[in-house]
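Journal club prep — side note

Before the paper discussion, L.F. wants everyone to see what a predicted structure for a comparable chain looks like in C-alpha cell form. Sequence:
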Amino acid sequence: MSGKLRSFEPLETVGNATEQGTATQTKGADQAPARLRANVPNEAAQAQHQVFHTTTKYAEEWVSLGQGNFDAILKSSQIWAAGVQDLAKQIAASAQASFDESLATFKALSSVKSPQEALDLQTTLARTVLEKTLAETGRIGDASLKLFEQTLAPIAARATLTVEKFGKPV
C-alpha cells in the first residue's frame, strides 16, 4: 500500500447501483465460498469434518439412548400394571375364601347344641383366619418384592448400558 487512504463513493452512488454492478456483486458472492475453501488449510477442513462427524454420531447415540430409555420405562410400566392386577386378584380370592369360611362357621353356629361347641367353632375360625392371614401376608409380601424387582429390571439394564456406553471419557 502506498500509505494513502482509499476514497469511497458517496452513499447516493452506492444506493443507485446499476444492474451490471449488482450482477457483479452477486457473482462475487457466489464465488466467495469457493475462494474461502481454497484459502482454508486442508487440516482445518478435515478437523471441521471430524468434529461434525463426531457430533452427529453422539447426537444419534443420545437419541437412541432416549428411545431405549422410553421403551424401558414403558416395559416397566406394563410389568407393574400386570403385576398389580395379579396381586389384586390374589388378594380378592383370599378375601373371598376367608369370607366363605366365616359364613360357613356362622351357619354352623346356628345349629350348635351347646355353648362349648359354639366356643370351639369360634376358636377354630379365629385360629384358621390368623394362620391364613399370616400366610397370605407373607405370600403377598414376597410377590410384591418379586414384582418390584421385575419392574426395575428393564430400567436397571438401561442404566447399566448407559454407564457402559457413556461412562468412558471422550
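L.F.'s comment for the group: Residues 42-109 form the longest helix (68 residues). Keep this in mind when we get to the figures.
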